[in-house]
Amino acid sequence: MSMEEKEGSLTEAKVLAMLHHPNIVAYYDSFLDEKSLAIVMEYAPVIKIIRGEYAPVPTHYSVELRRLLERLLQKEPSMRPSVNQILAQPILLHIICNLYLTVGSLPCVAQ
C-alpha cells in the first residue's frame, strides 16, 4: 500500500468514525499494517440482499415507498432505477423540494 493509499484509507476510516445514523452501518475500529487497512464495522446482511433473500418491506410504509424499495433491492443491477429515476419519484419530490428550500434559505458564511 503506497503512502497516498494509506493516507486515503485512514481518511476514509476517520470519516466513517464520524458517521452516526441508524441507516448507516456502524464503524467500530480500524487498524493498519504494512500491507493493508482493516476496518471493523457492524454486521450488515449484504449477501442476503444480493441474493434477494431479505424480509418484506414492512406494511407500515406507504405503497409507493414499498414499491420503490423493492425496485432498489432488485438482484439484477440493470433492473434497479437510476439516480434520476429515483429522484423523480413523486413520493420523493416534495421532500427534495423542501430540502432545496431549507438549504437555500440558510445564510452562507465565507470561510
From TrEMBL:
Extract one GO molecular function annotation from the record: protein serine/threonine kinase activity
Give the transmembrane ranges: none
- Which E.C. number(s) belong to this protein? 2.7.11.1
Q: Does the keyword Acetylation apply?
A: no
At the top of the EC hierarchy, this enzyme's class is transferase
- Reaction(s) this enzyme catalyzes, per UniProt: L-seryl-[protein] + ATP = O-phospho-L-seryl-[protein] + ADP + H(+); L-threonyl-[protein] + ATP = O-phospho-L-threonyl-[protein] + ADP + H(+)
- State the species of origin: Amblyomma americanum
Q: Return any one Pfam family short name.
A: PK_Tyr_Ser-Thr
UniProt KW keywords: ATP-binding, Kinase, Nucleotide-binding, Serine/threonine-protein kinase, Transferase
Q: Which PROSITE patterns match?
A: PROTEIN_KINASE_DOM
Q: Where is the Protein kinase domain?
A: 1-111
Name of the protein described by the UniProt record = non-specific serine/threonine protein kinase
So which domain of life are we looking at?
Eukaryota
